[in-house]
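Researcher: We're teaching a course module on how sequence relates to structure. For the next exercise, students receive a sequence and then see the predicted structure as C-alpha cells, so they can try to spot secondary structure elements on their own. Here is the exercise chain.
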Amino acid sequence: MKQRRQILYTKAQLFFLVLLRVLIGWHFLYEGLSKIFNPKWTSYGYLMDAQGFLGNFFHALADNPTSLGVVDFLNPIGLTLVGLSLVLGIAARFGAIGGIFLLTLYYLSHIPYIGAEYLFPSEGSYLWVDKNVIEICALCLLMTFPTSGIIGLDRLLNRYWKKN
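Model: And here is the predicted structure for the students to work with:
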C-alpha cells in the first residue's frame, strides 16, 4: 500500500494555511446556515439576475418550480457541508472541491464583465476577477497544501484507522 508523504510546514505556514481553511469554511458555513434558517430564502432572484453565456440556463432553473426546489434545497446544504468540512478539518480536500464547484457556478451566473449590470449590488467594481475567483484560488491552494491531517478531525480519524 502506497503511503502518503507528510508535507512539512513551518509554524507560520501551518498557522496561516489552517487560518485560511477555517475562515473560508466559516464563510461557507454561515452562508449555508443563514439560508437554512431563513424560511423565506430562495435562489429565484439570484438565478433570474444571471447574465452571460449561461444566463438562459440559470433562468430555466429558476422558472421551473421543480428545479428551483432542488437548487433551494441543495445550495444551502452544500454550503453548510463544505463549511463544516473546512472548519472541522474532515475530508477537507473534498470540501474544497465542493466549494470550488459552488463558487464556479456563482461566478458563471454573475461574471464580472464590462457592461454587466446586476440587480444585486457588488462590494466593488470588478473585471473578470471577483471574490469568487479569489476564493476558488484559495481553495486550490488548500488542496495543494492540505492541513486537515495535521490540525483537524482527519488527524484523529487517521490515527483511529491506523490502530484498526
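Model: If you want an answer key for the exercise: The chain is about 65% helix and 0% strand. The first helix runs from residue 11 to 36.
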